[in-house]
Amino acid sequence: MARDNYIFTSESVSEGHPDKVCDRISDAVLDAFLSEEAEARVAAETFATTNRVVIGGEVGLSDQDKLKDYMERIEGIARDCIKDIGYEQDKFHWETCEITNLLHEQSAHIAQGVDASDNKDEGAGDQGIMFGFATNETDALMPAPIQFSHAILRRLAEVRKNGTEPALGPDAKSQLSVRYEGGKPVGIHSLVLSTQHLDPDLNSDDIRAIVEPYITEVLPDGWLTDETIWHVNPTGKFVIGGPDGDAGLTGRKIIVDTYGGAAPHGGGAFSGKDPTKVDRSAAYAARYLAKNVVAAGMADKCTIQLSYAIGVSEPLSIYAETHGTGEVAPADIEKAVRKVMSLTPRGIREKLQLNKPIYQRTAAYGHFGREPDADGGFSWEKTDLVDALKSAI
């Protein structure tokens, strides 16, 4: 039986966190190639440390001359990302850090399993399992701890970048421990916020005075009380941030990227991967399906699992779980899911319009729980399958 009264914790990290700097650069490389060719192949990994960024992995375009041209643009793409994030530190500056591009052409052996041919549909880019999750505890149908951890850092980034709070630096982490009563989130038990600051003379109390109004603004009314435990910059000063303070790597924040630990994760990271990689596209499809199941009133919570084999187009399995909250049997949801959406790699890409340069914006503050964009970004957050799912039951 599920617990009704408990405390659950999730964390988020800002766009200036070293790992998120790397996610951003990897997704910016992906967007650049997709801008040139909708079927571009990209698997870009980034490593960042003091005064240095290294980008490696595989890329592919049908036109080899254009591929060479885009390879020459990689350094500028990386510098633009670092500049937009806001790094102008002595030992990590967008203008002066060393950029090394080790990207190379995609392996022909991988391509032969993924590419469509005359006698078979395009196969999955890899084997693996992917999970999607939704819950009606927030308007975005996301778990409250991760949703509001993201919201805090997104708001602090806004006021930092628009000049309202110039003392704040790009690197930051948040963590919320949320109290649940009757299975619903009702308040904040404790809050942790660590943010880089550019003035070395500021202390923890000074930082709390800066950030508290914005934290109060984004949290639901009444969730912060006199009993809420605050830890703001608990180690004291936080002046050296970003890759100069700690090395970063693409794909190390997969729980931050998804559901904050409130639901399973298949293990594959998202950033830097084109949508033939089911690590990414099928995880988006699973979230899309789970969200629509909850939006349709079929369950208060829903987990969808998909599994794939490299070179095979159809998913090997579809699993649904409603955590004791379902109005519809999970087996019936599994059958309905197959009816309303093709879950081949190409079917997913076409339904969710994933062959677009929409990925750089996903690199921080979560891939889920965001508003769909007019240009197709966050298309997997739409709830336009509700009627089809109801009809399929």
Whole-angstrom Rg: 21 Å
Proportion of beta-strand residues: 15-25%
Assembly level? single chain
The mean pLDDT is: 94
Biggest sheet record: 4 strands, mixed
- Give the proportion of residues in helices: 25-40%
Strand order of the largest sheet: 1-8-9-10
Structural class: alpha+beta
**Which series of helices and strands comes N to C?**
EHEEHHEEEHEHEEHEEHHEEHHH
C-alpha end-to-end distance: 26 Å
Number of helices: 11
Shape verdict: flat
Structure description:
The chain is an alpha+beta fold. The chain has eleven helices and 13 strands.
Give a brief outline of the structure.
The protein is built from 11 helices and 13 strands. It is α+β, with helices and mostly antiparallel strands and 393 residues long.
Keywords:
single chain, 393 residues, four-stranded mixed sheet, 11 helices, 24% strand
List the helices and strands and how they pair.
Blueprint: E1 6-13, H1 18-36, E2 41-49, E3 52-60, H2 64-71, H3 74-85, E4 88-89, E5 92-93, E6 98-105, H4 108-114, E7 128-135, H5 144-161, E8 168-181, E9 184-197, H6 204-218, E10 229-232, E11 248-249, H7 254-257, H8 278-295, E12 301-308, E13 317-321, H9 330-340, H10 345-352, H11 386-392
Parallel strand pairs: 3-6, 9-10
Antiparallel strand pairs: 1-8, 2-3, 2-11, 4-5, 7-12, 8-9, 12-13
Helix pairs in contact: 1-3, 5-6, 8-10, 9-11
